[in-house]
## 1
Amino acid sequence: MVMKALRRSTKPIIWLVVFAFLGTIFLAWGMNLASKPTAKGIIGRAAGQDIKTEQYQRMLDNAYYQYNQQNPGQEMTEQKTRELRDEAFNTIVSNIIFSKKRAELDLSLPDNELVEYLRRFPPDFLRNNPSFTTEGQFDQGKYMRAMNDPQLGQFWAKVEQLVRPQLEQAKLQEYVVSMPHVTDPEVKMMYEAAQDKRKVRYLVVPFITFAQKIGNLDSAEVEAYYAEHQEDYRQEDRVVLEYVTFAKVPSREDTSVVLNDLNEIRQELLDGADFNELARQYSEEPNAAESGGDLGWFGRKRMVAPFDSAVFSMAVGDVSAPVKTRFGYHLIKLQEKRTVNDSDQVHASHILLKVEASGRTLGDLRLQARQFIDDLADMPFDTLAESLGMRVARTNKVARGGAFGPMGRDKLLEEFAFNGKVGDISPVVDNDRFYAVCRIAELYPAGIPPLAEVRRQVEGAIRNEMGADSALALIEKIDAEVKSGKSLTDAAKIYKQEVKESDFFGRFEAVPGVSVDPAFHGTAFRLTEEHPISDIIKTASSYCLIELLGRQDADMEAYVAQRDSLYQTVLNGKRNQVYQLWYNDLQKKAEVEDFRYQIAGY
């Protein structure tokens, strides 16, 4: 009955206090920072400034609040929770970096500028505040009276706390992006690069064609190549993790709750309730609110097997018992039957309830994962896992920025892995499919690995070089035939090579067999009617010859008409690039440290 009541509760939560997010909104399965803080109450550091747990907590509460405001009634997934945690941390880091840079550049925001901004551009959270609306529309008069009301000083002080950092950051961004400039030749060049097209006939001789034919390599040759190219194989720090997982699958209780709900709904239907109305109210099919669960007419084998078997065995007007498919459990009502061209068809409606792991089930699984960590105090990782019938898996060697097997890329797991020692146990890791507990199994410091570890790569490089030499020898013969007067097509036929012909393509458009290659495309666009055939070109994986077949040059009359908008587009692109480079440099110098991985249950 509880789940049924929740399914009926479709009204969004009404937030009565504008700044409720400044309070303490927690998820039961969240960070729980209050109970498990770091030793000094510090969650990280940026530009030499500590990031306190309570500071992070407030930012996280704000993120949760805003998400719930923007997605009323929608359950927050754990994946989304992790994203919000990272956003909260990164926002604090950005604020610290920007604050220090503003102080350095003396880019303060005077009070009168802040007040003028609030007068002219009320933020959305104020425009949508019921106190400033009339019949659902923003009321400028109410808003201005509130700004001039001395009794609301505390309220406006909180508004200032929220808005000022955003405006100060915008002022800093404006300072940075004011530096780039764009010239007319730049705009013209960008336009031509985007609009110019070429059509070519081309021959590609891939290295791999010959590399695949090379047999076993001499050990002495491999060792000599490795000795000469050791720096090519230098690697960063890498780590191998062992891990066990606790799958987020529904429990028997979760299934039982759904079946109980469906049986209660079915009884309502048998008592005379309207099927379409209950489908709109209960069904978890995406379109149920509009369709009322109506599936229209369909023939045999149009639905998944259990559904198909059930609906074609029903009598018109019947309501089925719950039917299980891979989508969940269904109640089916057969509306009509007919035969078309000797084929049976039915008109049916359904109510779908999905079976998903409940909050209680997820909480139990997280507790099991935490209990696993606690039990490691008395038993080795492998032994404990074996005693529980759990499989211990291992990641490959992972460098920073890499994916930890099915756990994927995880910043906090990465921080744990590269700041620990062999044998250290991670906090509980979570993703959409499971919880995990990890152990650092092996650490490989940065350096040049032994030949045994990279032998396949070394042999691949040798074969590639040998393949390139053979490809060059072949295309040189074809090039000689072309220079003697033969066409590219006829010269290639002599050596049983295929010449291809492209459609018109731009400077940044792929060509079959070549993709987008600077050497190939650059040469294609330099060819002229006077010199239509290229010399031999080396791309990343082949040697090529190109013959120009046609060109479509940019329409310069159209350029004149579009020049102003193109100017702004190019300027915005350059500004974004400059700003990103500027910020990346600031962040690198800030030496950001993230200690969240030290907190169990991050």
## 2
Amino acid sequence: MAIDVRQLRPSILTRMLNSTPLGYCISERQLRRHRNRAGYRIGDEKHVDLLRYTAWLVWSRHNPEPTKPPLDYEAMKEAARARNAELSAIGRDIGEIPSVVNPQRKARAAMDFRFFCETYFPETFSLPWSQDHLKVIAKIETAVLRGGLFAMAMPRGSGKTTLAETACIWAMLTGAREFVCLIGSDAGHARSMLESIKVEFETNNHLLEDYPEVVYPIRALERIHNRAKGQLYDGKPTRIVWTADEIVLPTIEGSRASGAIIRVAGIESRIRGMKFKRADGRAVRPSLVVLDDPQTDESARSDQQVRARLETLNGAILNLAGPGQKISGIMPCTVIRPGDMADQILDRDKHPAWQGERTKLVYAFPTNEKLWDKYAQIRADSFRNDGDGREATEFYRQHQKEMDAGAVIAWPERYNADELSAIQHAMNLRLRDERAFWAEYQNEPLPQDEGDSDQLTAEAIAAKTNGHPRGVIPLGASHLTMFIDVQAKLLFHAVVAWEDDFTGYVVDYGTIPTSSVPSSLCAKRRRRSLAWLLVRAWRVRSTPAWRNSRANISPGAGGGTTGPRCESSAASSTPTGASPPTWSTSSAARAPTLG
């Protein structure tokens, strides 16, 4: 390729001069000083005229600067300071930024998110896209370029986090959004996503080719983040920020991404009032928010945390743009359980503005269940015998056509090296854990296991109320029992009436004393109250009053201080004046209803 010696870039000129038989003779730093001294006499801002440069060097050699008079100490100190400052500035200046390799490719990528992913991230997006991927990519492109709120539920391993990170990079590099807010389920999750974005800027050579105005200054940091504050380009600060929670791209004149910001936070972190002061004096607020899996397994199981995160989303996050501004949002998510945050956001009846879209790993399962049941048995036997399941894979190979019948898979290219198809991969995931498969890969979690059906609930207890006034014994009751649990400062008691078929009714319950009293009076108060309980007459509808004849008392922490002797048998009561009826216990007694 022909070289025009009248239009040489400084880096090329340096290499040319050092390529002569004389060897090394000049550095880029020396050439930069010569250009500063010679001005436009030897070239323009980006190029050097070799012939003029040579003439200037010859003229400088034969016309030395006049000798300056000796300097005093203070003048020498100031000269040294100025010289050191100049050397420091030269060392911090990143020099010339390389030219764009393919401007046409860069222009197309600015309007086509799919093309951007395929062109600049070929190692990341190596498999063919599924139809669901193309839907999600189209929604991301709409949100970035034209605005809107989009929630997309995708199976685990579908690359939704990678797409979210790439969308942030694309939005900043193309200048479509100057402030992007990336929010994770917690601060650690958000920082790990930002670190992944940093790695792309520092190592992706495809981005360096077409976005040198952004990537070249980042590479010049050489992962020494303290250099960011002092970095210069053409003698001006780039104002680059490179921290764990924030990236501010270099301020370069003519760059569409100049000064673009991405800031990360956990959904439970401080989000309100997020803004950034630019070098031109403008205060900017987020215009695009990306929420990647904004819930954890723990928060999805808690209705309180679900409500709290929804309130944060609708309150703090969607109002980040400030008054009179409209924010765009992208939310890749996975439904963990029915009614969780993702499940509610995806419901277009509850949140129509988010335009929720659910994708699945399998849209229709194979119809030949008998062969798949046999496959599952062979696979389980293989693992039980310390195998790796290859016998099941061989069985699937022999019957693949029959076993695949009726199946509709979302991503045919998604399966492992030891599997034969995406259908086998999906069925293996289902066999591994049915509940996890429906939640993580189908976004249709199974209903929660309610546990023991005999477990007490508030509704079940409320349904047991008997409707009788307190202290009144039902007509059908033939026995009355009292139970007392003795504690250090209180007596817990319950009085239950029983019918002959052991149907029970709680007549009264409570504590003695009913209010706090000095400790010195506790024992005396308990003895007096217990005596009153034992001789109290209970009113019965249209019949004489009943009294307790015996009581079952548990000594507890206060045993021996109550006064009356504690009986170990169940107590029974009969109407006043009547002979006590016989009493016997039975394991078949029904649970008493509450008064």
## 3
Amino acid sequence: MKRWVKMTLIGLILLSVLVHLYPLNNYAIWGSDTGEYYALSEAAAEDGRPWPASDRGEYEGWGHAYPFFPSTYLMASGFSSVADVPLLDCLLLLIPALAALSTIAVFLISRRVIGLDTPALAAAAFVTLAMPRTYATSHPMMGALADPIYLFAIFFFLKSYDDRRNLLPAAILTAALIPTHHLSFYFLVISFLGIAAAMRVIYSDRYLSPPPERTPPKEFMAAIKDLKDSVNRETIVDMTRDARRKEGFFRREIEWWDAVFISCAVLANMLYWTLAAEPFFNNVVSATVGLSVVLLVLGPVISVLLFLLIVGRFRYRPKIAFFDRKALFGVQFLIFIGALAVLSYIVVVGVPGTSIDIGPVIIPLFMPFVAVITFMTPGTMAARRYRDGMAIFFWALMITGSLLLASATKSTVLIPYRHTQYLIVPLGIFCGLGLWVVYSNIWNDKRGLFTIFIVILIAMTSISTYPSQEVMSGFEEGTSEDDMKAVIWSRDHIDGTVATDHRLSSMLFGFGGINATWDYAYNTIHGENITEFQDELEEVQTPSGKRPIDFVLITGTMEKGVALLQWESAEPMSKEAIDKFDEPPFIQLYDDGSTRIYAVAEG
């Protein structure tokens, strides 16, 4: 690796760390569920239990799956103990910093596929600043620690097709992901399946010689580089076709080791769910699907084998794509218009698969992001020139298929927008490759100007990395110092169930040990007349069972948007809903100007 590449990659890693930690400049706590993560990490540090003890011996927080995927909490509590660093600092700083290492994985995957440094660096830079991934991994959730594990596992799985010894690190990383994050493991499996499918459909030929080196044929690359106009196009087509046939561009012996590897990974995961995470399996997986344990364990394994068996019967040889400046710009313009149409659809109809409404400000805010995404066009065209390029395409195709299925079924387990964190990586690889293709094949005489343009464009995507509460349909991930002061005051002065939104419920539970309502006190918060919420005051559903509401916590952030269910918009409170707390049965106990706590009078 050249020195300038190393220095650029180190700079991108540092940038990734800074971007992941940036929200802490504006908030005391970043992440709406950080309170729960803190409670779980504290329990792991104190008595080694995977969840805080309770009278019933059960976890009484909102995230029923959280206690059974403890890698994040063990990492934070272990580092806190060894380094003598406060536990909260480990959660807020260490976990996002580890998530920032995904930048290295994106670079390595891109370089592995393309074999060139510049497009790999461009892909890593874009993914580092892309909102769908960075926003999700900037707080200490399970998926933040899982993100680099997921990507490094894909990197070694790709390499294993040329050297089976890479299966060992791939297996270790896959095993590490199982107790880290269930959703990331799901995406890892379908990503593996996409790559394995590409190897069978495009790159497999059992009756030809063993696989050659990964780098594209020299004659092929020379022909592409020399392509100036359409005069010698037919000659170049013949040259590149003969070169690819001669050097075995598609020749790779595909056996069933990858299917066995994926099946064993799925089986190990299902056994972990049924044995070590039984409450999660029963309450989430089994209750959602409604099948027997045997079918739920063996069904995914059988599905993996059948899927690869079926796709293995097909063969496809992608044709060589040539770049015409006008046609390419035309396609990019159409994609740009199409992306704006999708954003407009989201503004008018809502986020697919949810009832979340997004304001029109999302369109200008994400225009730089959309502009970079348009370079997927030359990227996907060029991907077929590289020996593993179509594997990235199949990887993206599998996640896209899952996204469409989740949107059509409005799944609350595979929430559609959660797919974007994982989809942005293969798309980012195509964007990096597309930028390099345009740079090297079209802007030959103005490369310096184009380079400046691309650097500015990618930098401008950072504008949308952390959208405001208004853009996020009322959702707010951060908790201010004033809100945390109210949480600490509650810990010292009240005892009972507090009605508030999801974010403050997490803080009360994690930092104050107080039971809260999380997603369930809609009428108490939004109701304008006591007849609307009287029954809820007497008995409301909470993660620990039905209980009466003893207190209410309202903040200025909540007035702008009350975050309850994550697949519904955070609705602002009406003036009447706010003013009702000034009348019985509510008694004000705490008021710092923006945060207020009320007691509910008996009777």
## 4
Amino acid sequence: MKTIFQRIKKVGLILILLILLFVIYDPIEILAIDLENFSGPDSPEIERLPDGSVDCKAYENYLGFEPAEVAAACQINVPKIQNSSGRSSTDLGYAQDIGFISDNFVSFTLNNFSGQTVIGTNTYSYYGMDFDPNAEVLWALNDTTDELGTINLSTGSFTGVVACPPGGGADNWTGLTIDPITGTFFASTATNLYTINPATGIAASVGAFGVDLMIDIAINANHEMYGHDIATDSIYSINISTGSATLIGGTGYDANYAQGMDFDNEDGTLYIFLYIGSGSNVYGTVNLSTGAVTALATSSPQGEFEGAIKTPGPLNIKIYLPLIHGKPYIMPDPPILDPIDNNGSSSFMVNWSASDGATNYLLEEDDNQSFSSPTTIYTGPETSFSLNKTLGTYYYRVKASNLKYTSGWSNVVSAVVTIESPIDGTWTGSISGGNSITMLVINNGTEIDTLELYVNWGGACGVAGVRYYFYDISISGGHFYKSQGAGETNVSGDFNSSTTASGDFFAYLDTGSCTASRSGTWTANYVP
């Protein structure tokens, strides 16, 4: 009996020790994920195997955020590092969990990713974000609304500035980076590099990467761009003139879904927000010579993060050299905004006077004169900015700054938009009596490059139909008119909104032996 009792007692002690070890150190902590914390919406059509289980293989290198059911079914884990002391930088970073774990928008110091401060929550999906060269405005590409806009650093709320659908008809943007010297906006899809005009949202193709799954890009103060491809799990250098990518080396991690990375513009370090799956992530630095990632924190906290680092470009760094005296900085005067005479048109310029001693201007827009909810729409050295707005009343103010001083605000001017400029692109419609009209609108809705009027003559003078062409037609106040000659074919019209137009036409037919004429109306719409 004593021997049996001793054995039971020994077994019980061993079980207690195992339980204590499991509580203190859980090497497979990721398996204990609470499904109730998965705030990201599932895809309505989860890929499944014949037995009904999730097809994990189908979601390798998926470009969007990770569906919650996939995360729960396809468990992935990395050794946990709460925070590494390998970095001493205390610069500030911001990050957004894009929906898998928390929807939190957070701030943190670069040497303590684990010690995050939650600023707010946001259910939008951002696959690219970066600060402007002054590190004052955080820009983001909103994949939910297909807009380029700004994120409020005090609340985490997003304000759309301009429509900006993914370039080349891609499913979504994968990255955004802003040159800290020139202020050029670069964006990536999985296969191509683009530049974006932040005033219009228009994306211009730079070129193809030559890889298939470029998930994020970042550019430093030397105009050197790098990209992270999750098909090869490697870092590439990118030619910003052609888009061509050159392999540097592997990160050492199997990344999937949305990723992020950004440069600390003060010391040139590239930080990466590398997502593995099922909540597991790696926050670390990238070796620009080898591509290898040094982890500073892993899954601490869990989340699928896109992030940006709040450090200004080198032009905003004060450097003092002994015994060298340059021109001292002076306080710039507040700029003076010119009145906006847009005659109701949605396309107009905001112009202001140059301020002596100023190197930068910040232009704000609001829908009320008190500027209770302003949006920064431009920062840079220019003294004018082009806009194309929808119907409404808009107010503007601007201030000037240099490396040491910032002026007060300028006077406030307003613009009232009663006529929406047509959207650039192809417009098509029909004419009375049969057949069609086609127009190509250009230059922010101020000009029609080509207009084709196809008139059905129904056999008059033995003619079935004739195509009439008009070129270089100016649009003023939403109205246009063009004639091929006195008493000959002409067309006129009005753009009733940014996507609809209507008007009249007069067509003249002369076969040499027979003449005929016809007049009528037409309607047309913008074709996305």
